[in-house]
Design goal:
4 helices
Length: 94
Amino acid sequence: MLKKNIIEKFGKDVKDSGNSAAQIALFSERIHHLTGHLKVHRKDFSTRRGLLQLIGKRRRLIQYLMRNDRERAQKVIKELKIRPISSSTSRVQK
């Protein structure tokens, strides 16, 4: 899927690339691409490290969106078909 299409689908408009939902969708697309790459190139450890960093960034963005707009976060998770974040991985707020 093209970056422009992803931003248009999850952001408010085509230029809304900073939107949390659009960022999560973009990270998910890159994660999907890198996962396919790693299935072919099993020993590419630098790409694996980059993939793990992207997964962490996406997880933190989802947690942010859950704190601020739970409905929207659940809609994005459902639409992207990613596993919801369990409460054990999220930080406890004081």
